[in-house]
Write the structure tokens for this entry.
Amino acid sequence: MNSELVSNVIIPRITEVTGIIINPIHKKNIEHYIECKANENKISFEEYCNLLIPNSVEFEKLINAATTNETCFFREKSQFDFLKDKVFPLYKGKKLVIWSGACASGEEPISLYALATHCGVCPEIYASDIDSNELKLFKEGDYSKFSFNAEGEEFHHLLESSKCGTFKNEGFSLNKEIFDHIKINRFNLAGENLPDFFELADMIFIRNVFIYFDNNLRKKILYSAAKKLSPGGYIFLSVSEICCVGPELIPPSLIKINYGKVYFFVKKDGDNPFIKISNENKLAATKSSNSFSIDKRINKLKIKRNLNTQNLLITKDEKTTEKRNVKDVFSKLNELLSIKNYSAAEKLINSYEPSFSEQFYKEYFFALIYKSKNEIEVAERHFVLAETLKPFFWPSYFYHGIMLKDNGKGSSAIKYFENCIKYLESYINDEKTDFDFLTESFNPSYFYNLCKKLVLMGEQNED
């Protein structure tokens, strides 16, 4: 009875308010929490559940207990390297407004403040989280050794040099004067309102929370964040989440950019050098493609001239070389999906005529279209066809698994992540595969490790 009450009433209520998808392990923790609170208040399990009404004191305590908070200083080193070398120098001597939208106990905003100050930037940081207990820990400012790991070790000294605080007893104690520059607010990303504690931010970080949300909430959060972002401003997700954000979730005001192996969003209609770099790269690729097309046309004319004089026929293989390059088709498909022009996308892929050995690409592209349209059953059929035609086509296994996971089929997704791991093992030492253009050029080890993490999460959910 208690388990059914939690499953049918309490967990849907938590998900409705916070957007967090509760897995079976967390469900057991919630049941244990309610039992303890009911005993503490000397009432029955059912009576305590009746107190768990949204916006009530007891419900807020439950949310604090249900949320998962795992963070550390300078987490995601590749992003901090990028900020240090390429972004913060652009703001040297200037004010920079930053919103850390899922700050937990504060390690992320403190890290951003330390690095920005080190780079000569004048940061004004707004930090928010739904968990009031974590925000309380942030305000207290005492961190243990568990807030540090080897990933961001080269940046740790900045915490003292930027006067954020002092290292002592294997931990770190925050200088409370930092709160002149970092403002703390409680805020629910899944709520209907936009944050009102700042006007517009130049940079927004919403990292390591999308994995707990479904696609509808991911889309809602990105659209809300875009409204609070200055033109030319940046949005960063974690490196393990951005590859799961398809074009159908991205607001038209944002452009997805990669610089090396770092991916982020930039708001259009602003002065941002990375938009220019991205456009130049696209132009260079287009020129290269056009140049290639011109060469092909010239060769075609030569062939025709020779045919006229020699009365020869163009072979089928020669005609095949005239077809569109798969990379060009994929690039155009992404553009159409980003604006949700599904009819044009389907027309594009219907007109795409790959060779027999590359037919799997066509099935995969159809799968991406129907995945974006949220027609899951149709998308799954095309994913399976692609995988049948090309058994080691690992991107299909990865995005097939992501689609199933995002639609509540985590146990079914595991086998696709496991297949992805199996086929990626042979590429680990190469640091590249034949299909990198389909996956934003992240190296194989990135997807290999991400799939391992997703398999582990899925197995825990089954327990």
About this structure: Confidence is low (pLDDT under 50) at residues 291-295, 300-322. The first strand starts at residue 95 and ends at 100.
